[in-house]
Amino acid sequence: MVRFFQISDPLRYIGVVLVLLLAQLPMLWAEYPQTIPELSWTLVGERMGDGLSIYKDIADNTGFLSAQVYWVLDVLFDRSVFAYRFFAFLLLLIQGFTFNEILNRTNILGQKTVLPMLFYGLLSFLFFELRTLSPPLMANTFLLLALSSLLKRFKSGSSDHGVYVIGFYIGIAALFYAPSLVFLLLAFLSLLLYTNTNFRRYLLLFLGAIFPSLMVGMYFYWKGSFELFILDGWYYPLFSAGITLADVKGVSMVLFLPALLLLFAIIRVFGAGSYINYQVQCQGLMVMWLLFGTTTLFLAHEKAAFALYPIIPAVAFFLSFYLVVSKKAWVRESFFYLFLGTLFYFGYGRLTGASEFTGEDRLSVGQETVPSYGKVLVLGDDLAPYETNAVATRFLDWQLSKKYFLDLDSYYNVSQVYSNMMADLPDAIFDQEGVMDKLFVRIPDLKGLYRVSDSDPSMYLLIPKETAEE
Q1: Rounded to an integer, what distance in angstroms lies between the CA atom of residue 332 and that of residue 322?
Q2: CA atoms of 165 and 395, how far apart (whole Å)
Q3: How many other CB atoms sit within 10 Å of the CB of residue 352?
Q4: What's the pLDDT tens digit per position in 18-63?
Q5: Is-contact 227 56, C-beta < 8 A?
Q6: Closest CA to 117 of 139, 142, 135, 144
Q7: What residues contact residue 190 under an 8 Å CB cut-off, 6+ apart?
Q8: Strand arrangement, sheet containing 459-462
């Protein structure tokens, strides 16, 4: 099988697409439910579809450009989970093809092959959450464009425009997924180590990265919410503790064998023989890419498997390079099938029984359907009530909203909660964190509007206006 994909031609590209399409089929049989992040992204798009502005009217840390994509998806497909997964697969194919063409055009591997595209696509099957339209996936599109520009600088030398473009692409990627900004340091170190870039061009690199955010910042300044753009769009995604959605122990067990195979591939690539200087530079760049991509995992606000996307190009690079330089056919085939078996065993956890390791159930929206109340407010991290209800108030992300509800001794916080809730009264409030009693003390007007649910003491239902008046 490896031999078929070692050559680059249209037939092989079609073969890669068919393999990836066939690999998607078990998803239909396994009936993978909507995940918590997917629900959160659809809610962001839905609220923006109602005419609200991210950060200003929606407390959420989704990247600005990612939020625009989710808005468009909501307008076109409403809450369709299939749309998120279909466009994720389409984007994955485009990225894989782009990555493959970058390596073939620069001849880094020493021969033209479709193996990079194949591995790029197959790696998304290690975890189910890698197969949805996440911000890291969308950000990778522009990181690959930055990689292409960076490799051109290695080969043809630096130019003012070329260096600026590298920074610009990274700046765009960061507006999709804030941790992508760390690749700016990667670009800086790469230019420093492998090119004769002068100080002025380093300034252009940083200017290019800052420019997209400056333009977006001007928009929020005009809307009167520049501070929220900085806090919710940059500070919290990069520096807050965030929320761990994945089972860290289980994910570590899943990654153990693939990591060993990757380490083996890297060692064999570096020890395979002599390379031209350009290939050595590119290998060094991809090692740094792997390290900086790993750094984004620690910066991610949502600790979930989809945060692995930034490292996929580097992993696909070394796996492909190893199969190209490996001289024994049986070794290549054994390595490939071992890696493939690992991917599919864990990627199809619901079919193979490996879901206990991948933590798919933990990431999925609750199995019990919450009744439809209309518009609700969830005070906690479990977004399941929103699956069958619309969002009330701007307090969508609990990690960003809890500062208002947990410190009700602050007049500013109380005024923010009061103004937001009175402007958009929820039909039901799910008090997962137990803050409503103190909130009623601080805002007595709200107490007369709600009653405790008979079925759930942590849920408060809006009293009908006629009953409240009586």
Answers
A1: 8
A2: 37
A3: 14
A4: 999 988 887 766 567 788 899 999 999 999 999 999 999 999 999 9
A5: no
A6: 144
A7: 150, 154, 285, 288
A8: 390-391, 375-379, 428-431, 459-462, 450-452
